[in-house]
Amino acid sequence: MALQKMKRIYIYGLKKDKDRILELLQHRGVVEIRSMLKEDGIFRRTDVTHAKESSEKNIAIVTQALEILNSYVKENKSLLSALKGRKEIPEDIYTSFGEKHESVIEIAKRIITLSKKIAEEKADLIRLQTQTEILKPWVSLDIPLDFKGTKYTAGFIGTLPGTWTLDEIYEKLAQFMPVDVEIISATKEQTCIFVLCIKDQKDKVFETLRAMDFILPSLSTEKSPAEQLNDLEKQIEDIKASINASSEELKSYDKNRDDLYFLLDYETIRTERYDAIGKLLHSKNSFIITGFIPEKDTRQIEEELTSKFDLAVEITEPKKKDDVPVLYRNNGFSEPLEGIVNSFSPPARGEIDPTMVMSLFYYVLFGLMLSDAGYGFLMAVGCAFVLYKFRNTLERPMKNTLKMYLYCGISTVFWGIMFGSYFGDIFDVVGTTFFGVENMPIIPPLWFFPVEKPMLMLTFCMAVGILHLLTGVAMKGYLAVKHKDYKSLIYDVAFWIVLLISCVLLLLSMKMIKDILGINVTLPNAVVRIAEILAIISAVGIVLTNGRESKNPFKRFLKGLYALYGISGYLSDVLSYSRLLALGLATGVIGSVINKMAAMAAGGVFGPIIFTVIVIVGHAINIGINVLGAYVHTNRLQYVEFFGKFYEGGGTLFKPFGMHTKYYKIKE
Amino acid sequence: MKLLNEYGIAFALLGAVLAALVPGIASAKAVSMGGVAGAGVITEDPAQFGKVLILQLLPGTQGIYGLLIAFITLSQIGVLGGSSDISFVKGLLYFAACLPIVIVGYSSAIKQAKAAVASINVVAKRPDQFGKAMIFPAMVETYAILALLISILAVNGVSGLNI
After folding, report:
1. Chain A positions with Cβ closer than 8 Å to B
2. Is B138–A593 a contact, with Cβ atoms under 8 angstroms apart?
3. Of the candidates B105, B142, B81, which has an alpha carbon nearest to the alpha carbon of residue B18?
4. Which of A343, A329, A342, A336 is nearest to A400 (CA)?
5. A582–B148 CB contact, under 8 Å
6. Nearest residue of B to residue A340 by CA position?
């Protein structure tokens, strides 16, 4: 339930040490650099946008090159790569990478050029192939396509639509004899013809031909079609060879893939450093670093810096108006849930870290919703296995997610045993179908079957809800104490807690409620009387005090009255916990449906095999749907019902100046 | 009356079948709405698949709740084995007990899908806000859960009545 204490840090250093100091800070990754001081006549900030741009440009080039490379050579990335985390490499590779830097950029540029070249050549190839298609019908013609005639003759080369026979064409041209017609080729779609006539008749023949829908070929060649085709084929061969060579060369850069990825990281580190430099104040010979540092790291950094360089370090308390960054400090039990809090919003200034309190309920609520020992066991064992197998390489966020599901799984096993659900009712079904066991259930629940006593389960869920809500209100009280706002502690917290508890007691004393819930508690009359009095006192107190920010007494009273109406909100909040029952039942009942379906198919020789297949597939789907449901609704109960009582968030996470690489981890 | 009593089981079965049918249809429609929106996001940013999938599946639960009620009813009225001796009144009661999930399940699935689509758009633009985006469709689901609860309690309660 706590956050790391943050301090302001000022480092005053000499310009000659700047790069080494920054490098050291980047390696340690414990200082968030922020600009806190104003520029003046001596100390100025430098503009780093230009330097940053060049890095960002390099990142863009390499990313594009990698994309191209991946489309040519598939990267052998297994599913497990997410678990293996970033690869560790020694620092000297990083420092010596500067020399390689240019050549890697060249490779990336070369990859992009090659891919452009291939694209262009492919377009060329298509153009040439179309030409070949056009020329093919003309292959037996031994004069060029743009032949227009000789001294005394005129020639027409072209196509007529549809199939024509020589006789048909001669018939049309009979009046212009002497005419020579040759059919070069004929298909259903077109007839390619060569017509030779006397020059004087040229125009008339052409007109007649036009009347027959004669078209000149869309391609003119100086060589004969056969020769031209030969040329084209050669060109096509050349281009194909060139494309092949280019893509082979491109593929050969597969061996540089690691370098390309590393360059991305290298540039990321550089941009991070430029960002930091942009926030520093420089004078001619010195510079100032300002920022935030967690208190626990102050001593180590101070010692290391002062022992290595000539500089001064100043650590001070953050100022009142500082937007102090948030760094969590939680034990292994609560830590996995920091991500859940973050996806709501990190705690703002003056708020407390709700992770610890939330974790007490989170696992319980999740377990209640999934509530099947079998599913929980699979989840817990799966997560534990991965956590153990990849314990050295897992990245922290992944580790936390797995740990969260591990704890959720354990809680699910617990509630599953309490409510007697093991993959639905798999033991009973297997027992009756295959072994003829008769006395059911084989494993009785430790507590009760929710399907048989839904009202009891509902009561229990609401009790859990009331506890959860009261904890939320109590957290508000804790905050009030922390801020020494004792008025709020009494008016907004104590009154409400008293009112809520006494209302619950009064409800329990009513016969109708007892009948509905099917519980049998008799409260002593004195308790009921006291509850009544307390409820009235606290309700009056709420009406009188909850509108206290208004000066006008009438307005104040109305606001107080409205605040009291907020009790209906508590009612709906409590009812909201009935989802624990509904989702819990959903898991169990769907599980039993699957088992029942499997049992129906279990007869015959292959029965057991079909049974197993249905059970495995069915439960796999059920586990997926219900884990999703449990996750979403646990979050909802935390965000809406619980956080609604005391937590708003709105802080910013601590983002230290460090090496936030994606592919490699640089080991010092 | 005796003649009528033979139709008791028919009403009970009608309730059960509607519980599986109506929310199922709605959920299929709802999930497809999410799928259409999600597919658009994936073309831009394939890395968001996991988040988008969760949002798409959220309005799918109504179909499951309907199935749940259908199954409980079927086993209570003896269609899945056992005696199916149900009076006319009891049949009508089962039918009525199924109605909350039939009606609320249908309407809430479609409404939830609209919220889910909006949330998918949030994830497309700001993937870091997934936690908040997820809550909006989950708020709609509350009412489906309440309807489910009443249907469960009512079906269970009817089976205990001696009429």
Report:
1. 340, 342-345, 451, 454-455, 458, 575-576, 578-579, 581-583, 585-586, 589-590, 593, 596, 625, 628-629, 632-633, 635-636, 639-640
2. no
3. B105
4. A336
5. yes
6. B131
Separation in Å, CA of B3 to nearest CA in chain A:
32
pLDDT tens per residue across span A187-206: 888 888 888 888 888 888 88
User: How many domains, in total, are found in chain B?
Assistant: 1
The answer to whether B138 contacts A581, with C-beta atoms less than 8 Å apart, is no
In Å, how far from its chain's centre is CA A310?
45
Q: Do B68 and A455 touch (CB under 8 A)?
A: no
Q: Sort out which chain B residues have CB atoms less than 8 A from A458's CB and list them.
A: 149, 153
Residues 6 or more apart whose CB falls under 8 angstroms from that of A403 comprise A332, A335, A336, A383, A387
Q: Is the peptide bond before A354 cis (omega within 30 degrees of 0)?
A: no
Name residue B94's amino acid: Y
- Give residue A521's Cα distance to chain centre: 50
Q: Inter-chain contact B153–A455, Cβ cutoff 8 Å?
A: yes
Contact A585 B68 (CB under 8 A): yes
Percentage with pLDDT > 70 across chain A: 99
Give the DSSP H or E segment for A291: strand A286-294
Chain B residues whose CB is inside 8 A of the A578 CB are 145-146, 149
Compute φ and ψ for A179, nearest 5 degrees. Answer: -135, 140
Task: Supply the pTM of this predicted model.
Answer: 0.81
* Each residue's pLDDT tens digit, A250-305: 888 888 888 888 899 999 998 999 999 988 888 888 999 999 999 999 999 999 99
B149 and A576 within 8 Å at the Cβ level: the answer is: no
The stretches of A13-90 forming alpha helices (DSSP H) are: 18-28, 49-72, 81-84
pLDDT, tens digit, 9 for 90 and up, residues B9-21: 899 999 999 999 9
DSSP 8-state code for residue A44: B
pLDDT in tens, A314-336: 999 988 888 889 999 888 899 99
CB-CB under 8 Å, A454 with B61: no
Query: Mind listing the pLDDT tens digit of every residue in chain B (163 residues)?
Result: 667 777 888 999 999 999 999 999 999 999 999 999 999 998 988 878 888 888 898 898 899 889 889 988 988 888 876 677 788 899 999 999 999 999 999 999 999 999 999 999 999 998 888 888 888 998 898 899 889 889 988 998 888 888 7
DSSP state of A335: G
What share of residues in chain A are helix, strand, coil (percent, to 5)? 65, 10, 25
Substitution target from A451, A459, A589 for chain B, most B beta carbons within 10 A? A589
Vertex B102, ends B98 and B105: CA angle to 5°?
130
Is there a contact between A575 and B152 if contact means CB atoms under 8 Å apart? Answer: no
Q: Which residues of B touch A590 (CB under 8 A)?
A: 64, 67-68, 71
Question: Which residue blocks in A253-372 are alpha helix, DSSP H?
Answer: 257-279, 295-308, 338-344, 355-370
Token pair 């708003």 is found at A648
State whether residue A23 is helix, strand or coil.
helix
Interchain CB distance below 8 Å, A575 and B131: no
Range of the domain at B103: 2-159
CA distance B105 to B19: 9
Tokens of A647: 């937590």
End-to-end CA distance of chain B: 13
Contact A468, A637 (CB under 8 A): yes
Q: Is the CB of residue B154 less than 8 Å from the CB of residue B74? A: no
Q: Phi and psi (nearest 5°) for A292?
A: -115, 150
CATH number of the domain that B137 lies in?
1.20.120.610
Nearest Cβ partner for B68 among A344, A579, A586: A586
Average pLDDT of every residue of chain A: 88
Secondary structure string (H, E, C) spanning A574-587:
HHHCHHHHHHHHHH
